[in-house]
Amino acid sequence: MSTAPTPDVPFSGLTRLDHVGIACRDLDASVDLYRRTYGFEVEHEEVNEEQGVREAMLRVNGTDDGGATYLQLLEPLREDSPVAKFLDRNGEGVHHIAFGTADVAGSAQEVGRTGVRVLDSAPRRGTAGSSIVFLHPKDCGGVLTELVQSGH
Amino acid sequence: MSTAPTPDVPFSGLTRLDHVGIACRDLDASVDLYRRTYGFEVEHEEVNEEQGVREAMLRVNGTDDGGATYLQLLEPLREDSPVAKFLDRNGEGVHHIAFGTADVAGSAQEVGRTGVRVLDSAPRRGTAGSSIVFLHPKDCGGVLTELVQSGH
């Protein structure tokens, strides 16, 4: 496998900003705010019991890798979920950003080689059947960062 | 002017996630981190004296409105700049998000009509000759939100 960068594909294989994850206390109210204020519509909604969230994906635009960029609104299901703890500490706001890749395991390996801690030893299930890993925010300039491979 | 939503253009005229603004203490170190970790390259760098920042735009992907999505790395020039205050309170991390529009004045007016406070009475100069306004984060789900019209 070549790991040389090319003009089109970054070294890490990350080809788009997939989404910005935003923590909120009331998903329905937040969906309403984003629709009413900006006109963004919900493309997908689900409960992720493992992560302890109810979430909605609002599509903002298509991307030149054939994917799209979304706002991901996240409401905690439980007091002990990571998003609930984030809300306690910070209030509502940006929780993480996610870069899209065609190969999340490969991208995680490449990023890990640079010294960034990958928080998941193997990809786990994200939104809509996607595969995801998280990177340690302390190694990413204070930004909780997710890598995501679309499920379709 | 028609304000009816269409399938392609949201009511507000916002057609892309233009950038995620990230506050950092040392721009050169952050640029190096993002290049080394992900392969993102600097497309533009400038000093904005009015906003009290030195900044770099790293291109992530192209968008289907003919624009692109960037990471905007922001280093404060002065102790009293808004980004310096953000760093004091929060440390390094996501500072704001920005949506792109072909008409920032029109979009600001539409968004303002929904009750969201627009912090700039008229668009001011953003990165690379762009025109920008900021929206009050308390009206935007805790997210400091910028609207931006490209300068080219």
Structure description:
Chain A has 152 residues and is of the alpha+beta class. Chain A has one domain (14-149): Roll (2,3-Dihydroxybiphenyl 1,2-Dioxygenase, domain 1). The first copy, chain A, has 3 helices and 8 strands. The first copy, chain A, has an 8-stranded mixed beta sheet with strand order 2-3-4-1-5-8-7-6. The two termini of chain A are 24 Å apart. The interface between A and B is large, with 42 and 42 residues. Chains A, B: This is Methylmalonyl-CoA epimerase. Chains A, B: Belongs to the methylmalonyl-CoA epimerase family.
Under the CATH scheme, the architecture of chain A is: Roll
Low-confidence stretches of chain A: 1-7
Query: What count of helical segments of chain A does DSSP give?
Result: 3
According to CATH, the fold-level topology of chain A is 2,3-Dihydroxybiphenyl 1,2-Dioxygenase, domain 1
The largest β sheet of chain A comes out as: 8 strands, mixed
In round numbers, the mean pLDDT of chain A is 93
Structural class of chain A: alpha+beta
Number of strands of chain A: 8
How many discrete domains of chain A? Answer: 1
Distance between the termini of chain A: 24 Å
Taken in chain order, the helices and strands of chain A follow as: EHEEEHEHEEE
